[in-house]
């Protein structure tokens, strides 16, 4: 079987299409036009036209080492499809995964809930690099909500509000300790000693717990929707010791767990956190008011440092990210009335980006981040270079809805997803028409095909390549506005 590999720009995805008679690697061979190999002009004068037609090429006979180099350039959907080409390609694919050499620069995708054939719920994944949508089978494990996406893994919640790590591409999971091991919560059992509800107590490190204080009672599923705010991971749990940091109510506090432990650990040193990232061994958490605290959890005791005091007024949501050029950025997103339609009560996003000046303890507004892109939402906040991800739009913020609990309280609440121009304060759609259901707000996911080894405690494997390829549906969609 012959395949054509077409590379869209430096670092872009490759399209694999059967039946092609020629192929090229524009970055490796000559300067011929894309999709063909051209002979030098002088050489063509000495070759009979009948002998200049290149024979059909059989890509299945490529040496494994060269084929592995090719696979390193592919985006996740193409890499999955390549495994189904033939046994040789599957071997190369397996080799890549076994040595943890899967493609490094995977462009983030938009993950959402959609409807598959027959009205069944399914996971949709919109590829920003290909501008295509894929439909995947809904995981066997119950997902009632998700509160984070990091290193290709989702932090999901089941019908008892217990949290679990899920790689939606491979199907691997890691079960986290139950709700009943968290601070601030007490299980309520019915007469048959069966878990029925959760009771939440309101206190923090400075405000002591009062026995007779008012509490809140939540059903098993309702607890997670109302209490969990956001989670982030220290690393890919399939390749190292992973720590999960959770921002939760009451008062936007922090709790963490090391994957494999049996209990959650409460950090009673701060409140009002809205976002958290991991960098060089430290978790950096930002509050509503812009204060930044750092936590090191690698030793026998927790180390906390306050890097920045509160410097802004309380906002609805503040994100933090370590920019690739070295600065720490704070991104503030809120909803404002559309100034062009003040009487329509139409709300539009407003996103402001600030550079943190630690010496002067202030934030400096910026409207140009150059050839970089920001991703914000329920996923871990990230900053990427368009040199590595050429299909993204520079100086833009890709955002998803992170209005805590809004999609649960308002069933008809449409998730807000878009691409925001930092310079001129305009927003365009990621894709039109929108593909997602109101149930489960869309979330950014950077696909990962890393295998889970001994840390996989789900008692089973993930989706096989055959299953993924047989059930993967592709839909061509309109270009970004």
Automatic annotation (TrEMBL):
SUPFAM superfamilies: F-box domain. Residues 59-92 form the F-box domain. Transmembrane segments: none annotated. Pfam families: Beta-prop_KIB1-4, F-box-like. Residues 1-36 are annotated as: Disordered. Residues 125-421 form the KIB1-4 beta-propeller domain. This is F-box domain-containing protein. It comes from Triticum aestivum (Wheat).
């Amino acid at each position: 079987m012959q395949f054509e590999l077409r590379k869209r720009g430096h670092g872009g995805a490759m399209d694999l299409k059967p039946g092609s008679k020629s192929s090229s690697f524009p970055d490796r061979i000559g300067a011929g036009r894309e999709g063909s190999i051209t002979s030098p002009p002088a050489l063509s004068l000495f070759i009979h036209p009948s002998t200049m037609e290149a024979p059909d090429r059989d890509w299945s006979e490529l040496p494994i080492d060269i084929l592995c180099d090719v696979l390193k350039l592919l985006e996740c959907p193409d890499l999955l499809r390549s495994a189904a080409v033939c046994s040789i390609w599957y071997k190369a694919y397996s080799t890549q995964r076994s040595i943890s050499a899967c493609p490094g620069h995977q462009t983030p995708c938009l993950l959402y809930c959609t409807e598959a054939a027959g009205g069944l719920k399914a996971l949709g994944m919109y590829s920003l690099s290909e501008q295509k949508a894929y439909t995947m089978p809904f995981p066997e494990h119950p997902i009632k909500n998700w509160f984070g996406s990091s290193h290709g893994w989702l932090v999901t919640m089941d019908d008892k509000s217990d949290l679990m790590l899920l790689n939606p591409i491979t199907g691997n999971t890691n079960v986290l300790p139950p709700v009943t091991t968290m601070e601030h919560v007490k299980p309520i059992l019915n007469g048959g000693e069966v878990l029925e509800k959760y009771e939440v107590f309101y206190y923090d490190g400075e405000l002591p717990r009062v026995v007779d204080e008012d509490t809140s009672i939540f059903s098993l599923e309702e607890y997670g929707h109302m209490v969990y705010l956001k989670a982030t991971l220290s690393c890919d749990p399939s390749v190292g010791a992973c720590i999960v940091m959770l921002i939760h109510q009451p008062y936007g506090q922090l709790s963490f767990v090391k994957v494999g432990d049996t209990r959650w650990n409460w950090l009673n040193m701060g409140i009002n956190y809205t976002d958290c990232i991991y960098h060089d061994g430290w978790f950096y958490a930002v509050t509503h008011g812009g204060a930044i605290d750092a936590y090191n959890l690698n030793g026998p005791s927790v180390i906390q440092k306050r890097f920045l005091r509160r410097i802004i007024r309380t906002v609805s949501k503040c994100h933090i990210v370590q920019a690739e050029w070295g600065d720490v950025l704070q991104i503030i997103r809120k909803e404002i009335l559309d100034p062009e339609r003040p009487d329509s009560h139409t709300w539009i996003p407003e996103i402001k980006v600030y550079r943190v000046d630690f010496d002067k303890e202030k934030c400096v507004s910026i409207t140009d981040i150059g050839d970089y892109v920001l991703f914000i939402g329920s996923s871990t906040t990230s900053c990427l270079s368009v040199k590595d991800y050429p299909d993204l739009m520079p100086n833009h913020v890709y955002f998803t809805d992170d209005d805590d609990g809004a999609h649960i309280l308002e069933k008809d609440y449409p998730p807000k997803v878009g691409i925001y121009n930092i310079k001129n304060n305009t927003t365009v759609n990621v894709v039109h028409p929108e593909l997602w259901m109101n149930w489960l707000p869309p979330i950014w996911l950077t696909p990962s095909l890393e295998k889970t080894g001994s840390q996989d405690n789900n008692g089973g494997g993930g989706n096989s390549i055959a299953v993924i390829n047989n059930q993967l549906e592709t839909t061509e969609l309109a270009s970004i506005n």
